[in-house]
Amino acid sequence: MPNTMKTIDLYKYRVHFLTGGLLALVAVLIVFNLAEKENSKTAVYSVKTFETGNGWGYSVLLNNREIIHQDLIPAISSNTSFAKKTDALKTADFVVEKLRGQKLPYLTKDDLKALKIHLPEL
Question: Where do the structural domains in the chain lie, given as residue ranges?
């Protein structure tokens, strides 16, 4: 009989240990989830345009810190700046939307055409 009591006590200990561990894991996951949501709420993107030597470029800022500096039109083979300030701004806004959607901020030539960005003849 005494051996059976030790087995029952050990079983109860394991159940309490596993239950406590699971509750701790759930609590940690909830905290990480809330922290991630808070970070996404505090992420403030902004854009600014600037003149280059031969046109326009843009910067994307996250919480007032520059994360992208683009002085050339991306996704094309020539080293050319945007012809118009509005083209740089439209492209920067598109990049920000990708970032907000948690997508990579790369652009394709088709993206630029869809935005109706003036592209140089290649």
Answer: 1-42, 45-114
